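Appendix C reproduces, verbatim, an entry submitted by the partner laboratory led by Prof. M.T., so that reviewers can inspect both the input and the predicted structure.
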Amino acid sequence: MSRAQHVEVLESADEVLSGEAVAIEVQPVGLLLRTLGALIDMLVAFAIFAAYLVVRYWVLGALGDPALDRILAVLALVTAFVLVPCAVETITHGRSLGRLAVGGRIVRVDGGAAGFRQALIRSLIGVLEIYATFGALAFLTAAFNARSQRLGDLVAGTYSQRVRTPPLPYRVPVLPPGLEGWAAIADVARMPDRLARRIAQFLENATRLDPGARARVAQDLFQEAAPYISPVPAVPAEAVLTAASVLRRQRERRGLALADERVERLSGTRVGL
């Protein structure tokens, strides 16, 4: 497997494909945050069961019926640890108090919204892996897969996706000095989406890299992008990548402007008819 193929395989673990076969980057919630969210949800479940105990001894104590007490206890256990988590997750489309606190949401592995079936499977298996083992089974399972999926997630085909991320500043690339003449005659073909995305990510984070690593990554990306750039200017690899990104942005902006003008002309023609 080549270096580029290896990178693409690693990237695909955190991507889903839209209906138009466009790769969309997603970020799963990490193990520690998932554990924190699960602890919050566990406290909520135990609080619901504790509320039953309070009602049982304060209100139902006068009944004195052991059979009724056992039935109500089973119903309270099922309600607190299965029905309520399943209902909350279904109604909120994968959210809960714990996941709301850590900024996560349960989704299907294909990126779609989880439904009642997934919520029910996760709740039923959660009784075993979370409450029966005090979370040990869920923690060990999540620790050995890339998306921190517990056993219930693996069976239901779901994972916890991060939906609250800090905004990142975006630096718009500028054409390097001395390449104005080259930009007037250069032709930058459409690059593969993953390659273009990797170049954009590198240019955005280049200043944070070690100089040696920065030069190596720039050279690797340049070798992949060179077949799509004509002519290739005799400047450092990072400058070529920056110039190519600027030209692609300008071309896409012109394409959008032409599309808007075409829509306006068609709209004016229809109004005239």
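Residues 1-24 have pLDDT under 50 and may be disordered. Additional entries are available on request from the coordinating office.
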